[in-house]
Each structure stands twice: as structure tokens, then as C-alpha cells.
Design brief:
single chain, 82 residues, mainly beta, 1 helix
Amino acid sequence: MTTQFAETRIEIARRSSSGLDVTLVWARGEQRNGALVCVRDQHEATYFEIPVETYLALDVYYHPFAYQDFSTDHPPHRSLAA
């Protein structure tokens, strides 16, 4: 049996450059209530999310690879579906 949790995400900021998309969102739901940085690398076909404390949100947004070890994916990279 699969358990699903409802979550609402509100985009706060987004930037893209050279195939790298970084989005800062506010996630609100049953499992999470706080800031989240989502990173997608089109060249490497990878995606990861980093839950962040509010006071660190902009720093993680501008430097996500410095915080990649704190991502929700282990190992840090997850391949995107084709």
C-alpha cells in the first residue's frame, strides 16, 4: 500500500543558467512546512531537493551545491525520467 501526502508548493524565486534550474519554494503540507530549494541539471539529467531553514534559504538558493549533502536524495543525484 502506498501512502500519499498532500503538499502545496509556492514558488518564491527561480533562476536558470546554462542548463541549471534552481527554484526556491515554500512547501506546506502534512509532512513538511518550510523552505525548499529544488535543483535540476539538464546536462547531467539530475534533480535534487534541499530542505532548508528559513534563515539559510537565500544562501542555499544561490549556492545549492555547497549544501548538496543535505539533500533529500541519497546519493545526492537522482536521474530524471526520460
